[in-house]
Amino acid sequence: MASGNKGNQLTAEPRTETKGSALRKLRLNGRIPAVVYGSDMEGTPVSVDAKEFKKLIRTGRSEMFDLVLEGGRKVPVLIKDYQERDGKGLHADFLKISKNKPIRVRIAIDYQGTAEGTKTGGILQVQETELEVEALPDNLPSVIEADISAMAVGDKLTAGDIKLPDKVHLISPAEELLASIVIPRAVEAENEAAENTAEEERATEEGS
C-alpha cells in the first residue's frame, strides 16, 4: 500500500514485528512505528511514512485527521503521543476519537510577547511547554496562547492564569507553574553583597 498524506489524512501500513531490530529497520527505511487504539478498538500496530507524518505534525498535535488503514478504512484520530530522538521519529500513538465525545489532550503553549522583567535584568524561566485540556475534537485549538509581556521580575504564570478558548476546559492543576521571571544568581549575589556592604556601613556609622 502506498503511503501518502492527502490534506488531513495519513496512510498507515500494518505492522507485525515488534522487536527492536525490526523497528530499527523500519526507521532506517523512513517509517515510524506506531499504534492506533481507542475505547472501541484494541491497540493495532502500524507504521507511517516519516516525512508525511512530519508534515502533518507541524499543524499541531490536537488537529484531527483520518488514518487510512489496510483496505482503505478511515479512522478519525489525534496524535496522542510522539517520541523522537535527534530529530528522528521513534514512535507515535494515534487515538481513535469520536466527534461528539470530549477528549483530554496535552496542547503546546505558545508564549507570546517580551516580558517586562527581562528588560530589567530578569530571565524568563519556562517550567511547562504544554497544558492538559478537555474539549470536543472540533473545539481543540492547535496551540494555547499565553501573553507574558506584562510579567515583571518575581511574577509567576500558572495554568489557572491562562485564558482558554470557549468550550475548552483546563485539566492541568490550576496552580501548576508554567513560567516565571527570575533574577540570575550572579545578579542576585551582587545585590546581596551590596546590601550587606550597605548594612555594614550603616552599622559602622551608628557605632561611631
From TrEMBL:
Subunit structure, as described in the record: Part of the 50S ribosomal subunit; part of the 5S rRNA/L5/L18/L25 subcomplex. Contacts the 5S rRNA. Binds to the 5S rRNA independently of L5 and L18.
The keyword Cell wall biogenesis/degradation belongs to this UniProt entry's keyword annotation: no
Domain Large ribosomal subunit protein bL25 L25: 10-94
Segments forming domain Large ribosomal subunit protein bL25 beta: 103-185
UniProt function note: This is one of the proteins that binds to the 5S RNA in the ribosome where it forms part of the central protuberance.
Assigned GO CC terms: ribosome
Protein name: Large ribosomal subunit protein bL25
Record keywords, A-Z: Ribonucleoprotein, Ribosomal protein, RNA-binding, rRNA-binding
Name of the gene encoding the protein in the UniProt record: rplY
Family membership noted in the UniProt record: Belongs to the bacterial ribosomal protein bL25 family. CTC subfamily.
Chain intervals for the UniProt region annotation (Disordered): 1-20
The keyword rRNA-binding belongs to this UniProt entry's keyword annotation: yes
Organism: Paenibacillus zeirhizosphaerae
Skewed-composition ranges (Polar residues): 1-11
